[in-house]
Amino acid sequence: MRLWFISILFIKTICASPIPIVLWHGMGDTCCMSFSLGSFKIFLENQIPGVYVISLRIGNSTVEDFENGYFMNPNRQVDYVCKQLASDPKLSSGFNAIGFSQGCQFLRAVVQRCGDRLTIKNYISLGGQHQGVYGLPHCGALQHETCDYIRKLLNYAAYNSWVQSSLVQATYWHDPLNEDNYKQSSIFLAEINNEKSVNKTYIQNLNKLDNFVLVKFDNDTIVQPRETEWFGFYAPGQDKKMMTLQQSMLYKEDRLGLKKMDKAGKLKFLSTPGDHLHFSEEWFIKNIIKPYLTS
Ligand SMILES: *[C@@H]1O[C@H](CO)[C@@H](O)[C@H](O)[C@H]1NC(C)=O
Ligand SMILES: *[C@@H]1O[C@H](CO)[C@@H](O)[C@H](O)[C@H]1NC(C)=O
Ligand SMILES: *[C@@H]1O[C@H](CO)[C@@H](O)[C@H](O)[C@H]1NC(C)=O
Q: N or C: more exposed end of the chain, with fewer CB within 10 A?
């Protein structure tokens, strides 16, 4: 009788245990420092008692983690993370994933490339650069001529194959003045966006998500253009006029299956006032935790 009671209790605890969460930090940040993602992890653990949270560390130490955010080829980073997540028994029944800034496009690559080994339920992208960037931090908001000059200069270097394999940020540099060059030379972003060729596995794996939640920061001065956080970008051939995801060829040709996901109500476009990654705990609890991490 007693044993029976205990086993029922045991089963109940297992069933009720919250879905684990995986975090991938942004550039210039690390997995675990108390002033960065370390405190966010504690916040989640307080909000969702008993939840298992992993804040990904890319490398063998915090210093390596920081450096790898700039210098480790994202394709290798994604591979490293896939293996790490696939070998964690606590994640075998599935998990939710949250990306921060450049960690968003890397985590999306994990969803697309490792969907046969991982079960990812909801994927939350906080300020990700899904269509890349064309500009330097703080420069867009200044609307200064020098900014425009610098980004045109950077175009010469970013697509050099040596720079592509040595500087992470070059792999998602997206020059709207020369789309063909971007598609040919970007060793990461153009590939995961199915701009080079269409990989059907990517479409299938992305579509396995319950929800793909894209959060844009309305007053973002770091990411240029900020519309990239919703898969928007400059219309091809110029760098002033914006184009939404729905207006893009990526969507119209449905190269990545996003149109299908949008029609199925799986794409969620959220925005919040504030600069890059600045959100209040109240906002996060109401808009992310309640609908996607605990329901
Ligand atoms: C961790 O250390 C091992 C042994 O030194 C090294 O081979 C490996 O590349 C390191 N991992 C990363 C991701 O830097
Ligand atoms: C498509 O992506 C999957 C998962 O990363 C990979 O195994 C496969 O080789 C890719 N297919 C092509 C044609 O590149
Ligand atoms: C933030 O962005 C919103 C939406 O674009 C705008 O209405 C608001 O004025 C901006 N706030 C600040 C402080 O710039």
A: N
SS3 at position 23: strand
Nearest residue to 108 via CA among 128, 83, 94, 89: 128
Distance 80 CA to ligand 2 centre (A): 17
Task: Say what percent of the chain tops pLDDT 70.
Answer: 87
Please report the pLDDT score of residue 30 as a whole number.
86
Q: Is residue 178 part of a domain?
A: yes
In a domain, 231, yes or no: yes
pLDDT at 26 over 80: yes
Residue from 79, 110, 113, 191 to probe ligand 2 pocket by mutation (most atoms less than 8 Å from CB)? 113
Contact 125, 213 (CB under 8 A): yes
How many independent structural domains does the chain possess?
Answer: 1
Find the 220 Cα to ligand 3 centroid distance in Å. 9
The CATH number of the domain holding residue 99 is 3.40.50.1820
Which range of residues forms the domain containing residue 288?
19-293
Whether pLDDT at 6 is above 70: no
